[in-house]
Write a structure and sequence with these properties.
By secondary structure, the chain is mainly α. The protein has one domain. The protein is built from three helices and no strands.
Length: about 110
C-alpha cells in the first residue's frame, strides 16, 4: 500500500506542473519587429524571454530547457506544487486541501496510510 501511495505522489509531483502549465500558460505572443533607429544605434536588441515548456514536455520542471532537472529547478517545481495545493494560501496544506488537490489531479483522493 505504501508503495502505491508513494508512486501516486511521485506521479502527481511530475504531472502537476504539466497541469498547472496547461491551465496558466498562454500561447506565446509574437514580438513585432522594430526597425532600427539610426539615432539610437547604440541600443542593443533584447531577446524575448524563453517560451514556457510545451504541455507534453517529459521534463516540465526543466526551466532552462537543457534536458536535465537541477535541484533548484526541482525545488521550484515542488514549491509551485505546494502553492497550488495550499488553497487558502496560509503556507500550510491541510488534509482537506490535499484531498481536494488529489481529486483535482487524480480524480479521487488517496486514502490516508495508517
Amino acid at each position: 500500500m505504501k508503495v502505491a501511495v508513494r508512486a501516486l505522489l511521485v506521479s502527481a509531483i511530475v504531472a502537476v506542473p504539466i497541469v498547472i502549465s496547461a491551465q496558466t500558460s498562454a500561447p506565446p505572443q509574437p514580438v513585432p519587429a522594430v526597425p532600427p533607429d539610426p539615432a539610437t544605434s547604440s541600443v542593443v536588441p533584447v531577446a524575448p524571454p524563453p517560451a514556457a515548456p510545451p504541455v507534453d514536455d517529459p521534463l516540465p520542471m526543466d526551466l532552462d530547457g537543457d534536458g536535465v532537472v537541477t535541484a533548484a529547478e526541482h525545488a521550484a517545481g515542488a514549491r509551485a506544487l505546494f502553492e497550488h495545493m495550499d488553497a487558502d494560501h496560509d503556507g500550510r496544506v491541510t488534509r482537506e486541501e490535499m484531498a481536494n488537490f488529489q481529486r483535482q489531479v487524480l480524480g479521487a483522493a488517496i486514502p490516508p496510510v495508517r
